[in-house]
Design brief:
The chain contains four helices and six strands. The chain is of the alpha+beta class and about 180 residues long. The protein has one domain. The chain has a six-stranded mixed beta sheet, with helices on one face.
Length: about 180
């Protein structure tokens, strides 16, 4: 459900400004609870470029609950643009459609991006961004999110109570608070 967006950015206005890696659920949502809301984040070089991307997303897509630029730099000259959306089975499709639209201002096709899902205790490596990889990695319903979290908590509890020395396969990740 795209809305008509007449004011805006020139073609390729954000070329070489958006890092082609999307992070999912690395941060805690501001619009609700983690089991209800997916937080996608993009790293952008330059505050103005980040704000332009935020406005592009927030004003152009009615499925986006909120888009926001980090208040400060995360590294020299780089900002994070957060995008919040409901956990729904339609998310992979609408998200990829938005990334396709972004190609007009970034020069990056969806196939140029990789993605990282931060709650996956088995694999935190980046994989190609695609509808299928989003659907396979990101819980698309509140129940699925809670079930995944409960399973992860049970496994961690079993390992801790067994007092078996182990080397974690992947680091345990707790979503970061946004300031």
């Amino acid at each position: 459900m795209k809305q008509q967006f007449n004011e805006g950015l020139d073609p390729m206005a954000l070329e070489d400004r958006v890092e082609p890696v999307v992070h999912f659920d690395e941060y805690v949502p501001k619009m609700g609870e983690s089991d209800d809301i997916i937080v996608a984040s993009f790293k952008v070089n330059g505050k103005t470029a980040a704000q332009d991307l935020e406005n592009f997303m927030e004003k152009g897509y009615d499925w986006i609950l909120d888009a926001e630029t980090s208040p400060g730099e995360i590294s020299e000259g780089n900002y994070v643009v957060f995008v919040e959306a409901e956990r729904r089975s339609s998310f992979p499709s609408v998200f990829i459609s938005m990334v396709e639209d972004m190609s007009n201002i970034t020069g990056l096709a969806p196939s140029d991006y990789t993605m990282v899902y931060y709650k996956d205790s088995v694999n935190e490596d980046s994989v190609e961004l695609s509808e299928q990889n989003i659907a396979n990695s990101v819980p698309l319903s509140p129940k699925k999110y809670r079930d995944n979290k409960a399973a992860s908590d049970v496994l961690e509890s079993m390992i801790m109570s067994a007092r078996v020395p182990f080397k974690p396969v992947a680091k345990t990740h707790k979503a970061k608070e946004r300031t």
